[in-house]
């Protein structure tokens, strides 16, 4: 079809109202920025709310249970991206799924701000987890749909969009941490709710600028099948509620359960793809190549996501937070990584562009990211044994810089690799598998953190650091074999 007879595409190409991009990008930029503001703002103070004593405004639960809850919550966010994608593809379309997900996120933060005790935590975290998963899955999809495949503005548009993510991640913990420190935890949660409300208002006002993009599900679920899926969803809710009320699911084992469910789901996904008659021999080889990458990704995220478990506890109890005579809130540490990402993301992108075909292969990038994460945990050891609030801020900032380098080596590459290795018949499922590795690692971050003891840190940092390095070294050794299985994909 000629380019001249597609009015909708021509209109999108001529729309340059937002830094040379379609003006609808401003709307998606805004809702994602405010969602990340609320998400990281809430997560920055969540663990302290759980284990601080009642006299400090917290719930006073055991530290190990608190890290388990945070890990399970984080894992559920990434698990629910799969559900959000399914709802968009089969029921509502990406645009409406994003809109309703944003409402759910806002309601979750309101629940945390208003309802006291663990009931408020339960209701709030469930709403935020499923809402964030649905929004995360569909915002990126809608950004891609703003451009046709030949529009040279696509990469720049995504760069602007991801800048919104990092602005929200930077500012959120700073403001909610200040509100929690000055007023109380519920004020911090309320600020997260206000941020999501602002994002929702601006998105609602600008929805028409999407001009029907993502309005319809691409693979609608037949009406006759809808009652079956409604029944399955209702049954799942009843089972989870019953297991919680009978004490099978507890705060202490929550992250372990999410780890188990994610492993089962991942094995199921791999088994379905590898046994399918709809994939070719070349595609099957590429799926096999993704298995060691999946494992390395899960290991990487199990360390990286400890920013919200072990590192959060460390920032509270071991870090010297005195800044010119004032102790800043421990949640402010969560803003260090976004600053480094904003500074170095462009540097890494420029380096890969300059190196071109000479850049390291994807398995080597994965191996390097996993090894650097292990080194970051070993870097805690020289600061160990100094007692409460003795670790220097510059030391932790240096460790988080290593976190950033590892993230930039693995995270952007992983999502791209999952699309390149995906069989044609399972394109979306392969992307879902990458998110399952993130879900598994995030839940593991809660499980591992239960073994951290601020009074005896060296064994923990040694075991976790060396374990990650070992996985990275094995991946590097196996890189030539993996590259052969990738059948031409770099």
UniProtKB/TrEMBL annotation:
Arranged from A to Z, the UniProt key words for this protein are: Cell membrane, Membrane, Transmembrane, Transmembrane helix, Transport
Gene Ontology molecular functions: peptide transmembrane transporter activity
GO biological process terms held by the UniProt record = oligopeptide transport
In terms of superkingdom, the source organism counts as: Bacteria
- Give every Major facilitator superfamily (MFS) profile domain span: 1-211
Q: Where are the transmembrane segments?
A: 37-54, 66-86, 121-144, 156-176, 182-201, 229-251, 257-275, 287-304, 332-352, 364-385, 391-410, 431-452, 458-482
Main subcellular location: membrane
- Say yes or no: keyword Transmembrane present: yes
- Report membrane topology: Multi-pass membrane protein
Localized where? Cell membrane; Membrane
Question: InterPro entries from the xrefs?
Answer: Dipep/tripep_permease (IPR005279), MFS_dom (IPR020846), MFS_trans_sf (IPR036259), MFS_Transporters (IPR050171), POT_fam (IPR000109), PTR2_symporter_CS (IPR018456)
The cellular component terms of Gene Ontology attached to this UniProt record, alphabetical and capped at eight, are: plasma membrane
Q: Which family does it belong to?
A: Belongs to the major facilitator superfamily. Proton-dependent oligopeptide transporter (POT/PTR) (TC 2.A.17) family.
Q: Which PANTHER family match?
A: PROTON-DEPENDENT OLIGOPEPTIDE FAMILY TRANSPORT PROTEIN, RESISTANCE PROTEIN MDTM, PUTATIVE-RELATED-RELATED
> What protein name is recorded for this chain?
Di-/tripeptide transporter
């Amino acid at each position: 079809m000629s380019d001249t007879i597609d009015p909708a595409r021509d209109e999108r190409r001529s729309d340059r109202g937002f830094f040379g991009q379609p003006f609808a990008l401003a709307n998606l930029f805004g809702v994602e920025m405010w969602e990340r503001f609320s998400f990281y703002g809430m997560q920055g103070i969540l663990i302290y709310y759980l284990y601080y004593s009642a006299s400090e405004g917290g719930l006073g639960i055991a530290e190990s249970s608190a890290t388990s809850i945070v890990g399970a919550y984080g894992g559920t966010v990434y698990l629910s991206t799969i559900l959000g994608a399914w709802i968009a593809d089969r029921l509502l379309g990406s645009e409406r799924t994003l809109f309703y997900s944003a409402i759910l996120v806002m309601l979750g933060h309101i629940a945390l701000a208003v309802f006291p005790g663990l009931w408020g935590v339960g209701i709030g975290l469930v709403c935020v987890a499923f809402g964030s998963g649905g929004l995360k899955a569909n915002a990126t999809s809608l950004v891609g749909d703003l451009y046709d495949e030949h529009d040279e503005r696509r990469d720049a548009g995504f760069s602007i969009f991801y800048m919104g993510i990092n602005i929200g991640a930077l500012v959120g913990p700073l403001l909610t941490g200040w509100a929690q420190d000055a007023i109380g935890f519920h004020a911090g949660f309320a600020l997260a709710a206000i941020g999501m409300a602002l994002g929702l208002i601006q998105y609602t006002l600008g929805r028409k600028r999407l001009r029907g993009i993502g309005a319809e599900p691409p693979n609608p679920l037949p009406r006759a099948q809808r009652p079956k899926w409604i029944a399955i969803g209702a049954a799942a809710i009843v089972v989870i509620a019953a297991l919680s009320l009978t004490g099978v699911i507890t705060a202490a084992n929550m992250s372990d359960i999410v780890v188990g469910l994610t492993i089962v789901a991942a094995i199921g996904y791999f088994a379905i793809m590898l046994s399918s008659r709809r994939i070719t021999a070349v595609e099957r080889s590429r799926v096999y190549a993704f298995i060691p990458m999946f494992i390395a990704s899960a290991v990487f995220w199990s360390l990286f996501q400890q920013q919200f478990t072990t590192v959060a506890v460390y920032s509270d109890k071991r870090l010297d937070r005195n800044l010119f005579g004032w102790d800043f809130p421990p949640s402010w540490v969560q803003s260090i990584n976004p600053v480094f990402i904003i500074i170095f993301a462009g540097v890494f992108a420029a380096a890969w562009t300059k190196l071109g075909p000479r850049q390291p292969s994807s398995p080597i990038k994965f191996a390097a990211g996993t090894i650097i994460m292990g080194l970051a945990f070993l870097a805690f050891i020289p600061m160990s044994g100094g007692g409460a609030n003795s670790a220097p801020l510059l030391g932790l900032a240096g460790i988080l810089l290593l976190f950033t380098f590892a993230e930039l080596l693995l995270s952007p590459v992983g999502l791209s690799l999952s699309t390149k290795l995906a069989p044609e018949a399972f394109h979306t499922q392969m992307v879902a598998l990458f998110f399952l590795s993130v879900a598994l690692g995030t839940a593991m971050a809660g499980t591992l953190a239960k073994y951290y003891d601020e009074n005896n840190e060296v064994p923990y940092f040694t075991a976790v650091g060396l374990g990650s390095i070992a996985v990275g070294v094995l991946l590097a050794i196996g890189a030539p074999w993996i590259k052969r299985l990738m059948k031409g994909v770099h």
